[in-house]
Write a structure and sequence with these properties.
One of its GO terms (biological process) is polyamine catabolic process. Keywords: Oxidoreductase. Pathway: Amine and polyamine degradation; spermine degradation. Belongs to the flavin monoamine oxidase family. The chain is built from 14 helices and 22 strands. It is of the alpha/beta class. It folds into 2 domains: about 180 residues, FAD/NAD(P)-binding domain (3-Layer(bba) Sandwich), CATH 3.50.50; about 250 residues, Polyamine Oxidase, Chain A, domain 2, CATH 3.90.660.10. Strands 8, 16, 17, 18, 19, 20 and 21 form a 7-stranded mixed sheet that branches. It has a 5-stranded mixed sheet with strand order 1-13-12-11-15, with no helix packed on it. A 5-stranded parallel sheet has the order 10-3-2-14-22, covered by helices on one side. A hairpin with an 8-residue loop joins strand 17 and strand 18. The radius of gyration is 23 Å and the shape is globular. The chain starts with a strand and ends in a 45-residue tail after the last strand. About 45% of the residues are buried. Bound molecules: flavin-adenine dinucleotide (FAD). The site of flavin-adenine dinucleotide has 38 residues, from helix 3, strand 6 and strand 16.
Length: about 475
């Protein structure tokens, strides 16, 4: 791969191109744009297949929306933390297994709460009174019925609508499913959990596609040691250029020219673009010629949502030994929940999780104010809660935005010199909601499956160890 300092216009005209062509080595070269897990996975595969690969990453670190923070003295994932689908089909699983990493199982398949099930949780009202478990399970049944009815609404309407609209149609048609008081607050908490899965408010989630996602089986496992070792393993021996923000991609007849912010050009046989959909939607990268219509319209159609975390380290554990601590409220926006990392990792850490518009609003606060807000929520449940000794938030570390449909995977690596590659391992727009509640045994974990999926190159990942 060649790095040249000429301006792109000069480069693609006149003698410079032929000069580079003369030097052209036989091994094909690829520039991967973006050093998140998609870009690193693509680069790893190409590196293993003897391509010459270079990753151009705009930030001063790799990982993108995966970032393991060590400021507490141990790993805490401020971006992705779960493996969704602990099974052979999941290409991340063999890496986790070969690195000997531990997964803490938080739910089996088919939970109405996605990556949690209702076995290890406590919900509280705003006065700190615990919601009786029988109310929570009764509302769960009603929530499932409501969702089932929304499927009928979908069939009756040709135009798409939001899940929230569909729920309101169902409640109009079935007054028996309407809830009041505490039960309604618990229903709002279920909706809040649904919004967390999609990183979008219910009025933004598509009725047509929300349950069309194929979520891998095997349940959901929390990465006890964090995702950092996976990122490092994928990145090993790959040529990665940090602080290289790509501004322009020129697709020549047999070369791709990539220009970064400072005007420096890089040339290769092909480019793989793994930047977040939000970056593409905002047209932060100029394509020449323009992307084909089908790619441009796919980018336009995909949504992007927000998810954020505030992690807090305490001196002591003053909360109960359950995985999830939730606050119910009259609207899903005002509901909240904390992940108790002590259960999975033994460390006295609570992670306040926020999604959708609420996450967006939280992100606007200073770090201190965001922590204070999380503490207010915590004190609703535990009035004597002590202040954390240290805290951390996701938006200082890791863009809080989630692409809603990463698996939509505009992936034509074979077909053209410029490929959009998204191997984000969880789709947000069309999340899964099965209507059978799992009661599988939980606990410190299950291992990632023992056979590597073939023929994925990174499946041969025992070298990662
Ligand atoms: C708070 C949070 C929690 C999450 N939890 C989970 C979870 O538990 N499990 C799960 O499966 N998923 C989770 N996700 C989603 C998951 O993190 C993402 O799907 C995944 O990390 C996306 O990887 P990616 O490589 O496609 O994109 P990214 O990680 O966003 O990588 C894209 C990279 O491109 C770089 N870039 C952007 N613009 C340019 C440019 N112009 N030039 C060069 N580089 C550029 C960015 O800096 C970034 O490093 C979570 C996301 C968030 C935000």
């Amino acid at each position: 791969m060649d790095s040249v300092d000429y301006s792109s216009d000069a480069f693609f005209h006149g003698p410079i191109l032929s000069c580079i062509d003369l030097k052209r080595p036989t091994t094909p070269s690829v520039i991967v744009i973006g050093g998140g897990i998609s870009g690193l996975a693509a680069a790893r595969m190409l590196h293993e297949a003897n391509f010459r690969v270079m990753v151009l990453e705009s930030r001063d670190r790799i990982g993108g929306r995966i970032h393991t923070d060590y400021s507490f003295g141990f790993p805490v994932d401020m971006g992705a933390a779960w493996l969704h689908g602990v099974c052979d089909e999941n290409p991340v699983a063999p890496i986790i297994r070969c690195l000997g990493l531990t997964l803490y199982r938080t739910s089996g398949d088919d939970s109405v709460l996605y990556d949690h099930d209702l076995e290890s949780y406590m919900l509280f009202d705003k006065n700190g009174v615990q919601v009786p478990q029988n109310v929570v399970t009764a509302v769960e049944e009603i929530f499932k019925k409501i969702l089932k009815e929304t499927d009928k609404v979908r069939k009756e309407h040709t135009d798409d609508m939001s899940v929230l609209q569909a729920i309101s149609i169902v409640l109009n048609n079935h007054p028996d499913l309407r809830l009041e008081g505490l039960a309604n607050e618990v229903l709002q908490w279920y909706i809040c959990r649904m919004e967390a899965w999609f990183a979008a408010d219910a009025d933004m989630i598509s009725l047509r596609s929300w349950d069309q996602e194929h979520v891998l089986s095997g349940g959901h496992g929390l990465m006890v040691q964090g995702y950092d070792p996976v990122i490092k393993a994928l990145a090993r021996n790959v040529d990665i250029r940090l602080n290289h923000r790509v501004k322009r991609i020129f697709n020549g007849s047999n070369k791709v020219l990539v220009t970064i912010e400072n005007g420096q050009n890089f040339v290769a046989d092909a480019a793989i673009i793994t930047v977040p959909v939000g970056v593409l939607k905002a047209n932060l990268i100029e394509f020449e010629p323009n992307l084909p219509e089908w790619k441009a319209s796919a980018i336009e159609d995909l949504g992007v949502g927000h998810e954020n975390k505030v992690a807090m380290l305490f001196t002591d554990v003053f909360w109960p030994n359950v995985e999830l601590l939730g606050v119910v409220a009259p609207s899903s926006y005002d509901c909240g929940y904390f992940l108790n990392l002590h259960k999975a990792t033994g460390q006295p850490v609570l992670v306040y999780m926020a999604a959708g518009r609420f996450a967006y609003d939280l992100e606007k606060l200073s770090d201190q104010s965001a922590k204070d807000f999380a503490m207010l929520q915590l004190k609703k449940m535990f009035p004597d809660a002590t202040e954390p000794v240290i805290f951390s938030n996701s938006w200082s570390h890791c863009s809080g935005k989630k692409s809603m449909k990463l698996m939509a995977c505009l992936f034509d690596l074979i077909a053209g010199p410029i490929s959009l590659f998204s191997l984000g391992y969880r789709s947000q727009l069309s999340g899964l909601l099965h209507l059978r509640h799992s009661r599988e045994a939980r606990g410190p974990v299950r291992e990632a499956p023992s056979t590597c999926r073939e023929p994925l190159l990174w499946g041969r990942s025992c070298e990662f160890g």
